[in-house]
Amino acid sequence: MPGPFNLDGKVALVTGANTGLGQAIALALAQAGADIAAVGRSAPDDTLAEARKAGRRAEWIEANLDDSTGVKAIVDSAIAKFGAIDILVNNAGTIRRNDALDFTQDDWDAVIGVNLKSAFFLAQAAARWWVAQQRGGKIINIASMLSFQGGIRVASYTASKSGLLGITRLLANEWAARGINVNAIAPGYFATNNTQALRADPKRNQAILERIPAARWGDPADIGGAAVFLSSPASDYVHGAVLPVDGGWLAR
Q1: What is the pLDDT of residues 91-143, one digit of tens each?
Q2: Active site residue: 129, 157, 189, 249, which one?
Q3: Fewer CB within 10 A of the end CB, N or C, for the chain?
Q4: Residue ranges of the domains in the chain?
């Protein structure tokens, strides 16, 4: 019999799956049995190749998540390609860095638009389809340590990730009884493009490493197990939770 973490026959729609955490999540889900609809502006060729190597179907859905008006088309495209979707991972994100005194409206809107607005409306589009089909589904929002903390020089990112955690809980309250699980993963400090500036700053890099009990930056592969758990039947009674994958950062 299939185990509680088995995703055979499931379809996962993963945004920002071409690199970093999104790629690692997509490949972990594929290795657990899910087919992958990879959403983003650029073709995730490596992700698709690795997912197919694992024996899964994998397709790219080209989309610009700066504009939330196209999110229904993303869901419709995934359903057209795969026949259904079962899992949505809102991973795509962007960041802008500047002192709060100098932060611009463009820096604010660009980050809020991708990280929060598009994530909400993509979740809504998926949930509307599930409700119409009288079936459940799984939504995983990728939050952040800055869903809990203030950070510095990343005003819109902090606002977006704090908001995303709040939206995760709200949607769980509204949709749990419909069989839709909405949860979040809060990655700690991972070695990805978004943290390149921090890792390149010797003082900030040292300060961060000194705070992490695991004494290292996270590798994208570290996040896969959490994503599989929250996508699988093992988490069927888990609603509105946030799972930190942070090397112990929040416990410090």
Answers
A1: 999 999 999 999 999 999 999 999 999 999 999 999 999 999 999 999 999 99
A2: 157
A3: N
A4: 11-192+221-245
